[in-house]
Structure formats: structure tokens, C-alpha cells
TrEMBL record:
GO terms for molecular function: fatty acid synthase activity. This is Ketosynthase family 3 (KS3) domain-containing protein. Belongs to the thiolase-like superfamily. Beta-ketoacyl-ACP synthases family. The keyword Transferase applies. It comes from Pseudoalteromonas citrea.
Length: 764
């Protein structure tokens, strides 16, 4: 089946779980046998997010009941969530409290320090907390449990999350990047009452050429429209239209009620009788409608009536194909980046080609006065890391992290970029951690203020250094509690506002360390599906902070010295902060707008293979590479340069080189050049993929592939010289002439997330 074959998108089935009226809880959470059923080892059980079990149960049952229909399809898993899951909150409170108390204890008398020590968190952290708290792992565990091999990632778009997930599913199905998509959505509120219950829902979609007997309905075109245009869906007599509305989140305005009544659109009051389930409510309304035996077309709108634009899609009972999209080529037209002390593309290029890079000795005194640094090795909620690629921002919070929105604002203000058409159908997708620290502390406000009060009582009245320190922590807690800018998707909204984009969708995405490539993939698919004209893909992550340093040290992820990719000394990665952005569009639109074409995005391959949440999987990496090459005329033999994921671990480097050699084979005439960006700027988590994309764009521009900062003796067991692979001790010029250069990028993430990007130097 080719992407242009007329096809339909079947909505196969849906399922849901809603908490009890009494306490909002779900019975499945009390059933310890569920852990064994889904092969979750004991070491993970205290680390995973609470909503993992309900989502696994729903997904497993739905997939198994339709296994004969989806067979061996490439099936994506898209998880919708929001910031502040229970593990994120528990981990952040533990690290924050430990940092504050240790700092106060160091500044106090021995007797006072003993009293403060009694307040230290008693909950022991799991070594797998960093992996367990990530939203991505909920999606990858579903893929692992259900034996699904497509993409797996998590998104957050506030109250629009479910509709954005439908849009992303539509894109991947329409462009034939996936054959099936499982959308999972969960509401994990910090407090559950009779008016706020835990809830989860799953929806299964499939691309098809002929009707599927037991399908619940068929998805129509997905689009974004102005609010004034919504009544158009109600003009036909056979249309039954509703507005997805969760009254507790987004009340229906009088203006919208007037619009609805004027055009005879029915406001779905089933949303009102459903329990308040937050972001899951929209999915529950759809589920309820699908269970009704009627023949109406259903027009569904996003559940934020006050918004100027809305995501719309239709579900019909009758089989209906979606019109074929025109063939497009996606190109990259601009870039901006800030890593460590290198701001902007020119400074970044210098950092790639000089002998220094951006890694430097960590200034421990800036991290709770160095009280959590343990040079001899990490203990409970402490860190051992000596070197990082810290962003040279002006202001940090008390966990030593700059505010992501401030970093993004500075990056945007200094970007002399393209004049984006404000009326273009646009998309902004930002790769980042979906649990911003400011949101965690906002939800923890009562608990943190209680801890402050206890510390204040122990310290008594005074003006000592300990009193000053405590006042600083109180100011931090107060500032966070009053903040309104706490959702990850607000970063995307910030970008859209900066460019004054009127018709724009916004979301944040998390796919562990492959996050920005996952974001790039979603943007590419949206353009190829014809739904979007212009996309801005951004990545912001700042892991050189006490929370991430402590949790990563607990799992021994970090190097005890400095990252040494391909070398005998490799013992983990060096963390780095970063912010990066690129602009994508169709080739013909770039020509119409008179924009420069810096590179062509030939293909992005993906897979989710996992035997373990933390161990790399060679078969999965090979599958992602094969998937990429299946989409383009570019062959492995054409690729001159592969930018590796290169995390600098003994297992990771060996598995990656083995996977590359399986696909690219040995080189005889010209060596295959292997890049390792992390040797210059450390591991920037979600930013890593986009930083590699920009590195490739710059290498095309300069006709030169930057060297790696090799740390010591190369590992003999990698057999790089025997394979004809160049670990790049020095800069090398491209052999191919300008306009005929090809490069590839690996991006991997926790839980078996694998991506492979193929890019070309575009001949004007």
C-alpha cells in the first residue's frame, strides 16, 4: 500500500476505566498481581507512574481482542498525559527537601543540624526513579507488553491533548508511516476526591483500504479551523454535531452557547454527567458516542471553547476514504541553537571544530553549597558528576536550573530568522520533559510550605546564614506557587506567540533522549499529510540540575570523569543543557516564500524494541534504520557521515556500532565517518537529536565533518578500523560535491525508542 492509495482510517475500538465515586481510585491499582502479569520486575515497581497499570490493562485487552485485525502492523503508541504524575512529585519533593535540609544543616550548629536531620525524607528512592518518572516509559511499556513495534512517545497539549493525539495519528496513518495507532490517555491528579477521579482510556485506529466488519467508525479529515467556522459542520441534515466540553476545565461561554443554538448544534450534555476526569473527558465522550447504535456523522471539536481556533475531526459510521495527498518533499530552512557557552549557530560550529567544546568542571558550590556532591560515588539523593556542559544563563532556581521559558525567550530574541507567514497552517512542537519542575513545585506547594514552617520553627528567630538560606527557599516556593506558566506545551505557545502565528497547533512531546527527533518526525508527517504548511520544531531541556544529577547518579548513568564515546574509558555520559529550533516546510513553499533550503529531510525511520527499559537493543536500532531507508532512494552506500547517539557506555557503544555495521556494512574504498556530538557538548537529553540535525546542516554548509573529542584509547572490540569506520580524530572534508552529500543521525531513548534520520545536501 503506497501513501497515495485511497484509504480510510478505521476507529476499531475503545475502552476506559474510571475511578470510584468514593475516593476516585481504580481497583487495578490495588491488585499487586498486575505487576507480574505485565512482567514489571520488583526493582521497577516503586519507580513507575501510578497510571501505568490501568493503561497496560486497557491496552493489552484492546490489542489482544483485535490482534487478528492488526496482525504484524507497525503500530504506534501515543500517550496523552499532563505534568505532575505521582512519581514526578514524590521524586521532586525528596530531592528538593534533601537539598534544602542539607544546606541548612551545613549552615547550622550541631544541635540544630540534628533537629533538621529528623525532617529528611524517609522514603528511599529507587535506582530507577529517573526512568520510571518519565511519561515516555508509560508508552514504551505498553509497546513492550503488547509487542508493538511502531513509534512510542508521550505528548501534552493541555485540554487539547486528546485532539492533538488524534491529529498525530491521522498524520502517521495517512502518510503510511504506521498501519495502526493506539492512543492512550490518563488523568493522574495529585489529589482525588468525589469531584476528581482517576481515569484512563485507550483508542485503537487502523489504516484500511476496505471496510472492517467490527469497526466502530471511520475517521474523517482532521483540520484546524476558526471558531466562527464550526457551525459549517451542522449544515447537513444527517450531521449530529457536538462540542467536547469538560465543564470543570473549560466551561462553555455564553457566546459559544449562542453560536451553538443559532446553528442547531447540540452541546453534548453527556460530558456533564460523566465524572470530572480532566484531560480524559474528551475521550470518554467519544467512547460513549461510539457505543450508541446510530448512523449519524459525528463532528468532534476540541474541549476548549474559549480558544480562537479548534481542532476538528469527524467520525462516520460509514466507510469513507480520505482524499489522497499530493507528493511533497520536506526541507529545513533555518536553525537556532544554544548549548553550554556557545550561543547561536556560528558559536556552535566553533565549539564543534575547536579542541575545547562546551564541557567544563562543575561548580559544586552553586548546587546547594556542594552538600550533595559525593566525589567518591553517589549515595542516597546525591551526585558524583565532576563535569557538565552547563548553560551559561544568568539566573537559576535553587536546584540550579534556569527557567526553560527564559532560556527559550532569550534564544528567540537573538534569532534573526525568516519572516513566517502569519496565516500559514502552522505547527509548533517542543521536545522536553513533560513534568516541568515549576509545575511539580506548584503541585507540591502545601507540602513544601509545611516543611518550611517546620524548619523555621527549629531555626527560631534570627539573621544567621541558615535563616537567609531558608528565606531563599521560601521565596522559591512562593514564586512557583503563584506561577501560571507551568505546562510544557506553553513553550510551544510561547514560540507561536513570538512569530504571531494565527492558525497554529501547539504541543509538547517526550520520547526520552530521542525527543526532538520524535518531534521532527511528527512535524514531517503533518507536512506530508497536507495538514500543515510550516512547522517549528524546538527542544529545550536543562538536565544539569540537582534533581536530574541525583536521579541519574542513582542509576550510575553518568561518567565519573568525562564522556568517552568509542573509548576504553567509556563509563557513562556527561550531562549538558540545551535549546534548539529548526523550521520545516514543503520544498515548493520554500521556493514560493523565497526561503533558503539548508537540507532535505529524506526520511525518518523509527521503532520501539525493548527487552529492558534501560538496555539498548540492536535489533530495534536496525529496524529503525531499515524503516528509514525503505522511504527514500538514498541507500546506505550513499551515506558518508553517520552522527551516532554515542552515549559513551560500554554496552551502548558496542550495540550501536554493531547495528550500524548490520545496515551499512564494512566500508572499503571510503570510510564511514562516525560523529559523536556528546564528546563536545555532553548529553542534552531531548535536545540531543535536534543538536545533531543542526550539526549535519552546518557540515553541509561548510563542506566539512567536525571531529570528535576522543578521550583516550579506542576500544579494540568495536573493530572500527576493520569495518572501515572513522572515529574522527580530525575534521574531514566531504568527498561528495555540494548538492550530493548525504548524512544520517541516530537517536535512541529509554524503553527501546529508536530513530534514524536521513538528510541530504539539497542542490538548488
Amino acid at each position: 500500500m503506497t501513501p497515495n492509495t485511497p484509504s480510510a482510517i478505521a476507529l476499531l475500538d475503545c475502552a476506559q476505566l474510571v475511578g470510584s465515586p468514593k475516593d476516585g481510585s481504580l481497583a487495578v491499582l490495588e491488585d499487586q498481581k498486575q505487576y507480574a502479569k505485565f512482567a514489571i520486575p520488583p526493582i521497577y515497581r516503586t519507580a513507575i507512574n501510578r497510571m501505568q497499570l490501568p493503561l497496560l490493562q486497557l491496552s493489552h485487552n484492546l490489542i489482544e481482542s483485535h490482534r487478528s485485525t492488526i496482525g504484524q502492523d507497525r503500530t504506534d503508541v501515543i500517550l496523552c498525559t499532563h505534568a505532575g504524575t505521582d512519581r514526578q512529585l514524590a521524586n521532586h519533593y525528596r530531592v528538593s527537601a534533601n537539598a534544602m535540609l542539607r544546606q541548612l544543616m551545613q549552615l547550622s550548629s550541631e544541635q540544630t543540624a540534628e533537629q533538621l536531620a529528623s525532617l529528611l525524607p524517609t522514603e528511599l528512592g529507587s535506582s530507577h526513579d529517573k526512568v520510571g518518572e518519565m511519561a515516555t516509559t508509560m508508552a514504551t511499556r505498553i509497546a513492550q507488553s503488547c509487542k508493538l513495534t511502531g513509534r512510542a512517545f508521550a505528548i501534552e497539549a493541555g485540554n487539547e491533548s486528546f485532539c492533538e493525539a488524534i491529529s498525530l495519528a491521522y498524520d502517521s496513518l495517512r502518510t503510511n508511516q504506521a498501519q495502526s495507532v493506539l492512543i492512550a490517555i490518563a488523568n493522574d491528579t495529585s489529589e482525588h476526591t468525589t469531584t476528581q477521579r482517576l481515569a484512563a482510556s485507550v483508542i485503537l485506529l487502523k489504516r484500511c483500504e476496505t471496510p472492517i466488519t467490527d469497526a466502530k467508525g471511520y475517521l474523517g479529515n482532521v483540520s484546524t479551523c476558526e471558531r466562527e467556522a464550526l457551525p459549517a459542520h451542522a449544515k447537513s441534515a444527517d450531521v449530529h454535531s457536538i462540542v467536547l466540553c469538560n465543564p470543570s476545565v473549560a466551561p462553555v461561554t455564553e457566546q459559544l452557547k449562542t453560536t451553538i443554538n443559532t446553528h442547531n448544534i447540540e452541546l453534548d450534555h453527556r460530558a456533564n454527567i460523566l465524572p470530572d476526569t480532566g484531560i480524559v473527558c474528551a475521550a470518554l465522550v467519544l467512547n460513549n458516542w461510539l457505543k450508541k447504535p446510530n448512523a449519524h456523522v459525528q463532528a468532534l471539536f476540541s474541549n476548549t471553547p474559549e480558544a480562537q481556533t479548534a481542532k476538528t475531526f469527524t467520525v462516520s459510521r460509514e466507510f469513507k476514504t480520505i482524499e489522497s495527498q499530493e507528493k511533497n518533499t520536506v526541507v529545513l530552512c533555518d536553525k537556532q541553537i544554544w548549548l553550554a557557552d556557545r550561543f547561536g549557530a556560528k558559536a556552535y560550529w566553533r565549539g564543534l571544530t575547536d579542541p575545547i567544546g562546551g564541557i567544563a568542571t562543575l561548580q559544586h558550590e552553586r548546587y546547594a553549597d556542594g552538600t550533595l556532591f559525593k566525589a567518591s560515588g553517589a549515595q542516597h539523593d546525591s551526585y558524583y558528576c565532576h563535569n557538565t556542559a552547563k548553560l551559561n544563563a544568568d539566573e537559576f532556581d535553587l536546584l540550579a536550573q534556569p527557567q526553560p521559558k527564559d532560556v527559550l525567550e532569550h534564544t528567540l530574541q537573538q534569532w534573526q530568522t525568516l519572516n513566517l507567514p502569519k496565516s500559514a497552517k502552522a505547527m509548533v512542537v517542543t521536545a522536553t520533559n513533560l513534568g516541568p519542575f515549576i509545575e511539580r513545585r506548584k503541585l507540591l506547594a502545601a507540602k513544601l510550605h509545611s516543611l518550611y514552617s517546620q524548619c523555621n520553627e527549629i531555626l527560631g528567630i534570627g539573621k544567621s546564614a541558615a535563616h537567609v538560606c531558608l528565606a531563599q527557599w521560601q521565596a522559591q516556593f512562593n514564586k512557583d506557587a503563584l506561577s501560571e506558566d507551568f505546562q510544557a506545551s506553553n513553550l510551544s505557545r510561547q514560540i507561536a506567540a513570538h512569530f504571531e502565528l494565527n492558525d497554529c497547533q501547539h504541543l509538547a512531546i517526550e520520547a526520552a533522549c530521542a525527543g526532538s527527533i520524535a518531534a521532527l518526525d511528527c512535524a514531517k508527517n503533518a507536512i506530508l499529510s497536507g495538514r500543515i504548511d510550516v512547522a517549528i520544531v524546538a527542544a529545550v531541556e536543562l538536565p544539569v540540575n540537582l534533581h536530574d544529577l541525583s536521579l541519574c547518579s542513582s542509576q550510575q548513568m553518568l561518567s565519573h570523569n568525562v564522556i568517552a564515546t568509542f573509548c576504553e574509558a567509556a563509563d557513562g555520559f556527561t550531562p549538558g543543557d540545551g535549546c534548539a529550533l529548526v523550521i520545516l516546510t514543503k520544498r515548493q513553499l520554500a521556493k514560493q516564500y523565497n526561503w533558503p533550503v539548508l537540507a532535505e529531510l529524506n526520511a525518518i525511520g523509527s521503532s520501539t524494541f525493548s527487552k529492558s527499559m534501560i538496555a539498548p537493543n540492536s535489533a530495534g536500532q536496525v529496524h529503525a534504520m531499515d524503516h528509514a531507508f525503505s522511504q527514500t532512494l538514498v541507500k546506505p552506500a550513499h551515506i558518508e557521515f553517520v552522527e551516532t547517539h554515542g552515549t559513551g557506555t560500554a554496552v551502548g557503544d558496542a550495540v550501536e556500532v554493531a547495528a550500524i555495521s548490520s545496515v551499512y556494512g564494512p566500508r572499503q574504498q571510503h570510510t564511514l565517518k562516525l560523529g559523536a556530538l556528546k564528546t563536545q557538548f555532553g548529553h542534552t537529553f531531548a535536545v540531543a537529536g535536534l543538536a545533531s540535525v543542526i550539526k549535519v546542516m552546518l557540515s553541509f554548509e561548510h563542506g566539512q565533518i567536525p571531529k570528535n573529542l576522543i578521550k583516550g584509547e579506542l576500544r579494540h572490540d568495536l573493530q572500527l578500523s576493520e569495518l572501515g569506520y572513522d572515529p574522527m580524530h580530525d575534521d574531514k572534508a566531504y568527498i561528495a560535491p555540494k548538492g550530493m552529500r548525504h548524512a544520517a543521525i541516530n537517536g535512541f531513548g529509554t524503553g527501546g525508542v529508536n530513530y534514524h534520520v536521513i538528510m541530504s545536501d539539497f542542490a538548488q
